[in-house]
Amino acid sequence: MMKRLEDLTVKIFADGAEKGGMLEMYAKPYIKGFTTNPTLMHKAGLTDYRAFAHDVVAAIPDRPISFEVFSDEFEEMERQAREIATWGENVYVKIPVTNTRREPAYDLVRRLADEGVKLNVTAIMTIDQVRNVVDAVKDGAPSCVSVFAGRIADTGRDPVPIMSECVEILKAAPRAELIWASPRELLNIIQADAIGCHIITVTNDILKKLPLIGKDLADYSLDTVKMFFDDGRKAGFTL
């Protein structure tokens, strides 16, 4: 039997960088946290990273929010991470798993985690990366291990077996949570829940489909027929 939204154990985080949309999701009790990234901020037209972050944290003080560093140099990443960590108790610092030269960020992750910085290690796509990140955070502060299942699926690979293996690997780090990142459809929420993934990050366009969970398929079929009929009539088509 299809689970109802309220019965899901996976935590749903809203993924976006537009304040209005974030506050819309904040009003919904089933949204347990928020994630952002420089790409989403750029698309939203933001130019003052620090001001936006402070504004959002003031409006959403009681659910986890991730903000990402944007340097390609580990020394500067560390400086940015330490500042971002001061923005709020609910703030997680996103660190990319490597820089653009494929140099791994594991040493930086371990150092920050051991010093109590809450981290969200991002852009992960391989099992080896997951193992190394888990080893780096296992003795440190609460953290998230963000595996981009949607991008894995974009390559033609089934992400479910990979994510299931990640769930097992995360057992070595009880203070870390696995994120199913970059979902492509509502079904991914059900899949993440089924394998015991801790968190899934979801954009607002997919979140708006949540009321469809468990909808009767015969009713949905009729809704679709009515849509085609109404749109054909509105277009004024004749033959």
Question: Could you describe the 3D structure shown?
Answer:
The protein has 239 residues and is α/β, with parallel strands linked by helices. The protein is built from 11 helices and 8 strands. It has helices at residues 19-26, 38-43, 49-59, 74-84, 106-114, 127-137, 149-154, 159-169, 187-195, 204-207, 217-235; strands spanning 11-15, 31-35, 65-68, 91-96, 119-124, 143-147, 176-180, 199-203. α5 (106-114) packs parallel to α6 and α6 packs parallel to α8 (159-169).
Summarize the structure.
The protein is 44% helix and 17% strand. The protein is an alpha/beta fold.
Q: Characteristics of this structure?
A:
TIM Barrel, alpha/beta, 239 residues, 8-stranded parallel barrel
By secondary-structure content and strand pairing, the structural class works out as alpha/beta
- In DSSP terms (H or I, runs of 4 or more residues), the helix count works out at 11
| CATH-defined topology | TIM Barrel
User: How would you name the CATH homologous superfamily?
Assistant: Aldolase class I
Global mean pLDDT? 96
CATH architecture: Alpha-Beta Barrel
Question: What shape does the CA trace take?
Answer: globular
Spatial strand order of the main sheet: 1-2-3-4-5-6-7-8
Q: What is the H/E string?
A: EHEHHEHEHEHEHHEHEHH
Low-confidence stretches: none
What is the CATH C-level name?
A: Alpha Beta
**Proportion of residues in helical segments:** 40-55%
Major beta-sheet overview: 8 strands, parallel, barrel
